[in-house]
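pinned: reference chain
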Amino acid sequence: MAPAAGTVIGTGDVLDIAIWEAPPAVLFGATAPGASIGNSLAQSAGIPQQVVGEDGTVTIPFVGTVMVRGRTPQDVGRMIVARLAGRAHSPQAIVRLAQNDSRAMTVMGEVGATRRLPLTPRGERLLDVLAAAGGSRQPVAKTTIQLTRGSRTAAMPLDAIVRDPAQNVTVQAGDIVTAIFQPYSFIALGAVGQNAEVPFEGGGISLAQALGRVGGLRDDRANVRGVFVFRLEHPEALPQDIVATARRTADGLVPVVYRIDLGQGASLFAAQDFAIRDKDVLYVSNAPIADLQKFLSIVSSAAFSVTGINNALP
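pinned: its structure tokens
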């Protein structure tokens, strides 16, 4: 079984090493008050803290150079005792990982304090490292947690991680955890109360909620049968017959237009189940009568202008 995270020594780690031997041998000199092995006082030596070099080794008096990288502190202690056999009397050694720089991860973004945190054998999880960094500075419902591991990145709303313990995964050395405030948004255009880019929470919103946030459909212009959502969709989310002939973007996404007819009562329930995604474009078309009214308004304005010019002529 692999050693627990935080117990394996790596380059840059700092080790505390203490060595004891039983009398009458005095290889390490001073007596540790109160320390005993069996029924006799033990001689002890506190080795200065050792930084693991780029070659993965440390140097210990009377022991020499020891390869410690990739080993646990207990393994190193046993190696030291083995090398002291025949030189020290009943030697014993304790090795402690004083500073675990080789197995650390980074927390940044909307947290109390950006930190580089060493991992311990306990196995820290996402919520543990967020708490150690001071927690999220933004409301839980509006925060998304992004985990970068190597070349892969995944993101999930913070409230989803809190609700589902299975998503509170164990972090690993080199991970980067970023807390992001409201990273998602959609664009509303056309015959709605407000044309704007609208941010929304990591937990997501429905089409009905999106329409509500932009003031709903305009009574004087909107075509209730012409509500559209423009989206760059992942191919696996579409039927294969559509994917086979569809054009794709440079990122391999398929441009898709979803249409909903709000003139039908059942469509209002569908709008509550249809989830708006990041970078969606919500468009509500004008009703045909609105286009006619706009045309008549233009003609009317032109007629008044002509009349005004004619009246100004002698």
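why pinned: The longest strand covers residues 40-51. The longest helix spans residues 288-312.
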